[in-house]
User: What shape does this take?
Amino acid sequence: MTTNNYHPPVHNIQDTRAVDDAKARADREVMVQGAAVTDQAGKGPVVEIRDLTKTYKLGHTRVRALRGVSLEVRRGEFVAIMGPSGSGKSTLMNLVGCLDHPTSGEYRLTGRTVSSMPADELADIRNQKIGFVFQGFNLLARSTALKNVVMPLMYAGLSRGEQERRARKMLQLVGLGARMNHKPAELSGGQQQRVAIARALVNNPSLLLADEPTGNLDSHTSLEILTVLQALNQRGLTIMLVTHEADIAAYAKRQVVFRDGRVVRDEVVAAPRSAQADWLASRQTPQVTQAERAQEGEGSSSHE
Ligand SMILES: Nc1ncnc2c1ncn2[C@@H]1O[C@H](COP(=O)(O)OP(=O)(O)OP(=O)(O)O)[C@@H](O)[C@H]1O
Ligand SMILES: [Mg+2]
Assistant: This one.
């Protein structure tokens, strides 16, 4: 415990009963959703990739971005995808995220073969099963946090009231109960990324894909985001996170390293670091000013 009242977002929401109820409801829904996915797809892996290749054609040149990748990601895993620039990490994420077709190989998502699916079916699967978080947040600048999170639900056939209820619940889950009506420019980088995480999860996806989600954030704010991701993972969310940084990958449960379009290392992390513990420790360093603490304390007091 620190001397001030501020705690990282997901930790903080456990401190109030109203948000605890929201958390309990969210837990139940995650479980319900998990059961539904299991019914449809058995207990197999979320991602099964065999011999996947991707070759981009640029005029007369061909870029072999993936050269035969096989990978399995099971439910509840938190995988860091690492490797130097150009090694194929984003290409893999685009394929896993059903944004693109492989050149060859097989990809099954929660048991369904998607590698050969037509584009419209691929888009449906993507909307139902995948949540995306990007380095640049990609929020709608003119819309409030709430509107940004409601956006993916607009085509889900839900009433306006139900859309907002779900969006509010997700924003509370990431510790932004007090910031629902703020526009992106009125939020810190960490808060913007938390809005993006809430938006990615509002459809209850089977898999969260995050490509350098902390790439635009300082180290302290990165820990805030990792705290949220670890808490969501503990609730059963499967996460694949791309990062250049070993410091960030240390919070994952497994590390897969790419080089030249191939997997060159795939290891379980024996003892993943706790982002929350490191976040708290970094709070105690003197570089955080009193004014910043006061501002953040104010932001976290809204759940009452
Ligand atoms: N749309 C595209 N058209 C042509 N070549 C591409 C395309 N996208 C990526 N590439 C090439 O494919 C290779 C892999 O790119 P990719 O974006 O997957 O790398 P990365 O590991 O994500 O790199 P970074 O860490 O810099 O983001 C690179 O050589 C890149 O130049
Ligand atoms: Mg990339």
